[in-house]
Amino acid sequence: MLATVRRSGAAWTRALLLQLLLAGPGGCLSRQELFPFGPEHGDLELEAGDDLVSPALELSTALHFFDRSDIDSVYVTTNGIIAMSEPPAKETHPGPFPPTFGAVAPFLADLDTTDGLGKVYYREDLSPSVTQLAAECVQRGFPEVSFKPSSAVVVTWESVAPYQGPSKDPTLEGKRNTFQCILASSDSSTYAIFLYPEDGLQFYTAFSKKEENQVPAVVAFSQGLTGLIWKSDGAYNIFANDRESVGNLAKSSNSGLQGIWVFEIGSPATASGVIPADVNLELDDGAEYDDEDYDSVTHLGLEDAVTTSFPYEAPRREDSGTHNTPSDLSPRRMATERPLTPPTEKTRSFQLPGERFPQQQPQVIDVDEVEETGIVFSYNTDSRQTCTNNRHQCSVHAQCRDFATGFCCSCVAGYTGNGRQCVAEGSPQRVNGKVKGRIFVGDSQVPIVFENTDLHSYVVMNHGRSYTAISTIPETVGYSLLPLAPIGGIIGWMFAVEQDGFKNGFSITGGEFTRQAEVTFVGHPDKLTIKQQFSGIDEHGHLTIDTELEGRVPQIAFGSSVHIEPYTELYHYSRQVITSSSTREYTVTEPEQHGTAPSHVHTYQWRQTITFQECVHDDSRPVLPSTQQLSVDSVFVLYNQEERILRYALSNSIGPVRDGSPDALQNPCYIGSHGCDANAACRPGPGTQFTCECSIGFRGDGRTCYDIDECSEQPSVCGNHAVCNNHPGTFRCECVEGYRFSEAGTCVDVNECQPSRCHPDAFCYNTPGSFVCRCKYGYQGDGFHCVPGEVEKTRCQQERERVVGTADSPRPQPPGLFVPECDEQGHYVPTQCHSSTGYCWCVDRDGQEVEGTRTGSGMRPPCLSTVAPPVHFGPPVLTAVIPPPPGTHLLFAQTGKIERLPLEGSTMTKSEAKTLLHAPDKVIIGLAFDCVDKMIYWTDISQPSIGRASLHGGEPTTIIRQDLGSPEGIALDHLGRNIFWTDSQLDRIEVAKLDGTQRRVLFETDLVNPRGIVTDSVRGNLYWTDWNRDNPKIETSYMDGTNRRILVQDDLGLPNGLTFDAYSSQLCWVDAGTHRAECLNPGQPNIRKVLEGLQYPFAVTSFGKNLYYTDWKTNSVVAVDLAVSKEMDSFHPHKQTRLYGITSALSQCPEGHNYCSVNNGGCTHLCLATPGSRTCRCPDNTLGVDCIEQK
Q: Highest taxon of the source (predicted)?
């Protein structure tokens, strides 16, 4: 029977292998083509439920993963993960990525198999049929590799459901996902194969218990925590983390076979990151670029907001070492700075257990949308750490330098340390920490236990002398700990006086290391272990230490004293490890009895190991001597029984191993007889010569030093919104209330509008340094407490009630008395009439008559409303405009927000770039700026609408939301007070007033894919692009829609962005098909090629001598100098998602006017400028006699 099963399995595998190898690029992977799975194939089945983890699956062949080759068991989870170690309980449900453990995630999401909602199978398979199939899949992805696996871990998630959360999403009802992960291993390497069959992924998001909403699945790898001493995030690679990328998993491939993805995850080449296969699917038509790149703009969703990655190539299989060369990015590739970031807004997955130091710059590989080539995935990583992204890991008193393999920090002149931690030379240092112990004294069988005991140490650096006190030590153990001066001696080693060419502990480690010591008492069966963790300098400028004592010590009688002679100790150095051992004597003098004080000499052997991290990238650093000698003298130990304090004091110097010539030690700087001030450094000279030099932050002759008050001498040292506090040798800046420190070190406004800040029925408005709460419409109160109530009546309503009364209490209307008319919002109707006389006139928003508008009986003047439409409030948190400082800014759109980038002249001030407006529920495409009212207008294609917001602050407003398909380009006539936009779904161009009223269709014929649109307000011209693949063109007309004609038709590819410079009268555009930026004067036929070789331009604007365009391939804003036809600079936003529209927010409007700029050109409704004139037009669907059309 077993033979039959094996023969049938082998036959199945041969058939499947033949299908896979013969599959063309268009053939989807079927479920029948997955690796065999199920109980009949020896699979184990994970228990049904939510957030479950399997028992360890013990492996016969060890897995290789990143830089490890010893993984002999794995764990399978419900949530689409294979873990290299057992996940902690708090990480069994998805949270922020990466997790603390090594993980392979073919589809990380909150999945559910409760009550039969799918199954999860797993096994290790050694059969030749399965390993051969795995080898063939790897061969397709890595054709240059000869890979012969001996085992394969096969994990299958079959028909699993999404976790729905408390409120079930009906759209996910019945949706099930099936996918598979194979980990194939040989003796030297491991590859991962992800299989996504056709119709296998029916949902791309699941409810997150941490986020409490739907979040996209993640396809990724994580090395987990690394480091022997300090645990930090290892490398991790994210391949998909948004709906579109996840949705394309079954449709594309990196191995040439649709739905099959192959990655090298463990070998000598993957120490710094997973290596993806790079075999593209073939395209049917061989087109240079894909329509889908452009069509997809109308289908983008909110998921665009979460894609994050880095602008670097992933390592290729043939590469070695780390990779540090920035590459040309594909149009769909996203890039970011991060701390991943930070998390900004990070990819969602496992919750980290807490803060871990140091935070390494992660490697990220990511996926965005469909490339020009039609391939879904784009890979990019920065496996070399650079100063650009890691300057924060250096001390503020250090410089950062890049090297071929990474970066290193080094303290600047006047400071000492390892570069990560630096302190002023010669300045006294303080060390604080905690001590806990479990110590047996003498023959006692009951340990003395103490917890949370304070340790404080003060170090006079120029003497190398340390004073250490440990408080609240029980007297039952206090005297017996007197010989253990090395507990505090390690602090002396850290700040020992350095002889020329030798380094003390702080210079080597920066006060960040782990020390483990063992004390064996000769002649006694007693042994004590000491564990100490030094964690660098805290926010108060003090070093921190944690100490743990455990073991047995000989008993020393109460009241005894201990004397320790000067001693030397040899420290042996190898890479990131320091060791020493010695034998020491100490003399115990007991309390006087019968006129004598007996004393005894005892011996103990001392052995210690210090482990630390050092920078290995700088080969030019002086090599540390392999052996250094620590000389310790003036040793003083005391236990104060009344205060229960244990005290140690020692003087320390570090230098060469003595060879019988101690002359070097005779310099006063080394023996402590120099007389320098406590806040000065002693500089040894020839022989016994020396000089005293005040430490940084102090002034004087070195013999006497006094503190510099930096706050008085530099009143503006802390910048705006901050106060300066002077401290000895330094100063501190603190932000005033309502502000916090930014990553750049400046004080920025805190957004106080957090949940529960205001009443639930109120809106919260953030203001600089504060916030304001206002009750919503229909509620009354101070914003902190709102109750339903009658809305305060408007001026019009109050005036009307004084005449006619209220509905409950009407008044008789006297004849001949004027009664004002109010609209639904209580505003004055713009046309007011006297019922008795028949006269009519126009009024302003305050009800005051507009001069010269009164008409005779029976005539109604064409009055225009001066009241803005009702404001449609968005979410009350984080959506208000953050007012920018004065000046000219570039405004550009990213999914979910608009950012501002200040210009100084034509130079982008990149360090001052900030978010102007958060709009998390929008996909903003086009931008236009009104230089008159300082308003920004945008188009949103997620829920098609047009919105606006004031740069002065406040909430955004939706002005148009009806009868829109996919509004993309938007332009503004600041003189005629109109907006124009293109709609690529409805194939038309429309115009409306700035408040969204009086809409009129200008064109709805001969348009295929209209996109960019701009105005020449002074001349009354309109320009737009149409990237119709069969007939791309740039057209123009007057603003009233007349005189339509083709301006450019030849030599265009995909004309995208368009800009008109009012100062130079130049029309410029960027073309993603020809990869060019070009300009012309509309009155002249000559086209000027400004720049070729653009990556993937989308939108463009102009200011001064420069063009600025957004690029989809580099996710950046690029500045092009028109005079020299050269790219001058680029700006990569912190959040690296796709950039869309861009516009110039001018500090003042260009000079000029048109015929609509005064009194609306005399038009009743739309005034549309034309060269030298204007046309009055009526809105569409307007009936009645109030509107008059005329030229």
A: Eukaryota
